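FAQ: What does the model actually see?

It sees only this:
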Amino acid sequence: MARPLRIEFPGAYYHIVSRGNEQRKIFNGSKDREQFLLYIGAAHDRFSAVIHCYCLMDNHYHLFIQTPLGNLSRIMHYINASYTAYFNRIHRRFGHLFQGRFNGILVEPSSYAMELSRYIHLNPVRANIVKKAEDYRWSSYRFYLGVSDKPEWLDTDLILGYFGKVKFQRIQQYRNFIQEAIGKKYENPLNKAVGSVLLGSELFVNEIKEKYINDAEVSRDLPSIRSLKRKSSVEEIVKTIEKESGIKDNGLLKKVAIHISHRYSDMYLKNMGDYFGVSESAVSQMSARFEREIEQDENLELLVEDVKRKLFS
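And it is asked to produce this:
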């Protein structure tokens, strides 16, 4: 399995997802979740980790985290390894608890902190576990509303700071921000991540690429670096697919082109939508649907991988 790209520097922000192995539960009840949060607190004390948002679901968890010391890998290894040892001991099991290494996306907070916090806090609502985000005990949302005293390691000021300076007003405005998305379709902000590792403005992405990626070793173990270093235009992607893939079905050709363009081109979503004759949101939705098709069809997966090799090798 390819190693995910890790870009670490002091003060960096990340969206983290860690899932249970084979989509199995990683929390069997309140005690497990309470213990996990203790490890989060310990990571704050030991490694200066700052948690801005979290949500613990049954088979995965989300964190929006800042690393003042630039030590994300150490933080996540401590949290996941400590919790795995606890879980295996308590539940009398052996082996891996989490599905490989955690997924971490480097985030520009000024562009995406608000949207990520909403995405994280609405997880249990989207999963139909609760109707109101504040009814879910195992996320940081209730601390944002002041329903409970927040733990020392949770920083709500970053997010709430975008909603004003007066405490009562910014809490109410943040509540409105969360509630206005309930029952409506809105794009997952993570769909806008570049190369599955960077989420931010074009300026932010270019700065990170220049500072932390251009001098990195590009090897077969790091496809995400290759995709960031060698972006293709939509036109180049479409021409390569038409010429090299052998796809005769125009519908399938368009699906492949949209999916690969969404993941690997520099074009903005709106311009991409104009190119393919669909809306901006349809680009992300079609790409996500096709990703699920790929996961269920080995021949389709091989076809897409072959196109990517011809584009990026």
